[in-house]
Amino acid sequence: METITFPSILTALPGPRSAAIIETDRGYISPSYTRDFPMVVESGNGMLITDVDGNVFLDFCCGIAVCSTGHCHPEVVQAVRSQAGKLMHMSGTDFYYRVQTDLAKKLTEITPGNFPKKVFFTNSGTEAVEAAMKLARYHTGRTRFIAYYGAFHGRTMGAVSLTGSKVVQKKGFGPFVPGVTHIPYPDPYHSDSPDLSQECLNFMEKNVFEKTVSPDEVAAIFIEPIQGEGGYIVPPGDYLDGVQKLARKHGILLVADEIQSGMGRTGKMFASEHFDLEPDIICLAKGIASGMPLGAIVARSEVMNWPYGSHASTFGGNPVACAAALKTIGLLENSLVENAARMGEYLQWQLKKLQEKYSFIGDVRGKGLMVGMEIVKDKSSREKDPELRNRIVEKAFYKGLIILGCGANTVRFAPALIVEKEHIDSCLEILDEVCLGLGG
Ligand SMILES: Cc1ncc(COP(=O)(O)O)c(C=O)c1O
């Protein structure tokens, strides 16, 4: 599929064509967009992207954890072409078409929990979260939600009310959907607690449910089984089980936001499976269709009891996106989830070697290909160093490696699930050079 394996930077960055487009772009595009790199992408192929000046980059973020099968996987491209030639739109909430039905059935089969489920399709992650909020309120007749500090659930009005990631995402946009209480997400690296899970569960029970929010008014707890934008934080093994038990005890729905952690990224089809979670509603998007815009919620059938006409979407479940998703899931099941598990272990192993070498790499963690590397002032204080993290990400870019930050001070690695050892070796070689250049 690929002819070149390693990045190849031929011009100063940005090159002249990129610079011209960026200049024009500034005149027309919303200033709210967060473009970290002066790179104008012309094409993508597997793990590589090429800019308009012919520079080739090694992509370890794959469109922010979206291009799960790599850029333009030939089988996905073929599925898209074939579907686009047959039917591009019909509005799946008003008419039937086969690919949408097939995909819904498939999603109910691959999501955790051996019980009947139903699917609602959207175009994006935030819309999936929006749908989950509405469904949770409708089903329970309750109004309140529990969400987490550090969580990112999207930017539409409901989802941003749950989001607790960065104040810039909220400032000036309130008032938000009322009834959201944020609680701490367990962060093992920054805790010295002998029982972090219990401490965080106590917070929910004792501080929230006994002091400020009656649990019988809570419709749902929204949780990312591995926190994404918040810093690729893996909670302690027993925490999620504790949350699930608390939710069940109080008749609260458990909503797993697997928009970033799902679709094989963590080495299992869903991150929930690492923790034996069986969410009542699961939110999906990002990697589901290899880059075609698609989101979904998959809920227990008895939970998805909203009536005819109560919620719908013109574009949600678009046939071309559904065809891409079916092909994507086939590829994931065939070998890519397993590859994510294997290559994720290799990536973490290599990053841990780097951690031993450099004083500012405080922590390496993750599951499968959802891997975070936390940058600190020194390992004993664990004080976060956002500025150094930003320099690492920036310097890697100038050497042809695309990595992104998440949380205050974490570098995230979210390559396509097709990643191979040679890509990881190349990534690590560049990172090592970058770290060496920064001292440490
Ligand atoms: C966990 C999680 N939920 C929701 C979203 C929002 O998805 P979208 O940008 O497709 O609206 C994101 C996006 O980064 C996410 O990571």
Label the CATH architecture of the largest domain. Answer: 3-Layer(aba) Sandwich
Question: What is the CATH first-level class name of the largest domain?
Answer: Alpha Beta
- Over all CA atoms, what is the radius of gyration? 21 Å
Estimated share of beta-strand residues:
15-25%
Which ligands, by name, code or SMILES, are bound?
pyridoxal-5'-phosphate
Number of domains: 2
Total count of strands: 15
- Order of neighbouring strands in the sheet with most strands: 4-10-9-8-7-5-6
Output mean pLDDT. Answer: 97
CATH-assigned fold name of the largest domain = Aspartate Aminotransferase, domain 2
CATH superfamily of the largest domain: Type I PLP-dependent aspartate aminotransferase-like (Major domain)
Spans where pLDDT lies below 50 across 5 or more residues:
none
Shape: globular
Major β-sheet, in short?
7 strands, mixed
Order of helices and strands: HEEEHHHEHEHEHEHEEEHEEHEEEH
Helix content: 25-40%
Structural class: alpha/beta
User: Roughly how many Å apart are the termini?
Assistant: 38 Å
Describe it.
It is a single chain. The chain has 440 residues and is α/β, with parallel strands linked by helices. It folds into 2 domains: 16-72 and 338-437, Aspartate Aminotransferase, domain 1 (Alpha-Beta Complex); 77-331, Aspartate Aminotransferase, domain 2 (3-Layer(aba) Sandwich). The chain contains 11 helices and 15 strands. The chain has helices at 16-28, 62-65, 74-84, 98-110, 125-140, 157-162, 196-209, 239-249, 319-357, 386-398, 421-437; strands spanning 41-45, 48-51, 56-59, 117-122, 144-148, 180-183, 218-223, 253-257, 281-284, 295-300, 361-367, 370-375, 401-402, 404-406, 410-413. A 7-stranded mixed β-sheet has the order 4-10-9-8-7-5-6, with helices on both faces. Strands 1-2-3-13 form a 4-stranded mixed β-sheet. The chain has a 4-stranded antiparallel β-sheet with strand order 11-12-15-14. A hairpin with a 2-residue loop joins β1 and β2 (48-51). α3 runs antiparallel to α9 (319-357). It is globular, with a radius of gyration of 21 Å. It starts with 15 loop residues before the first helix and ends with a helix. Bound molecules: pyridoxal-5'-phosphate. The site of pyridoxal-5'-phosphate has 14 residues, from α5.
